[in-house]
C-alpha cells in the first residue's frame, strides 16, 4: 500500500483520556512533600553552616591573636626607654582577630566575651599605649577564652 491508500485513523483514538482526580491529588501530594522536604533540608543546612562558621571564625580569631606575638606590658611603670613598639603585621593580626571575633559573635552570642576583650586589646594596640591595666587584663582573658576552645 502506498501513503495514498492508507486509511485515516478513527477520531476516537485521537482523544486524550482524562486523568483521574485521585491520581492528580496523589501527584500533587508527592510534589508538595518533595518541595517541603527540600525546604526543611535547606533550612537545616543553612543553620548548621552558620553555627559551624561561627566556631571556625572564633578559632581563626584565636589563631590570629597568637600569631601576633607578645603584647608589651608597661603597667609596671616602665619608662619610655623601655617601651617596645609592636610590628605592623602584629597590629594587623590583632585587628583581624577582633574582626573575626565580631563575625563569630554575630551568629553565636557565646563568643561575645571574646569579642569584647579583643576589642579592648585592639584599641590598646592601635593606640600604642600598653599601660592600660584593663586592656592588659583583657589580654589574659583572651588567652583564657582561646584556651577553652
Low-confidence stretches: none
Helix content: 55-70%
User: Assembly type of the shown chains?
Assistant: single chain
Question: What integer is the average pLDDT?
Answer: 81
Cα(first) to Cα(last) distance is 86 Å
Transmembrane segments: 26-48
Keywords: Membrane, Transmembrane, Transmembrane helix
Task: Tell me about this structure.
This protein has 149 residues and is mainly α. It has a domain at 55-70 and 86-148. The chain contains 4 helices and no strands. It has helices at residues 21-67, 88-107, 112-127, 133-148. The protein is rod-shaped and about 110 Å long. The N and C termini lie far apart (86 Å). The model has no long low-confidence stretch (mean pLDDT 81). Keywords: Membrane, Transmembrane, Transmembrane helix.
Describe the secondary-structure layout.
Elements: H1 21-67, H2 88-107, H3 112-127, H4 133-148
Keywords: Membrane, Transmembrane, Transmembrane helix
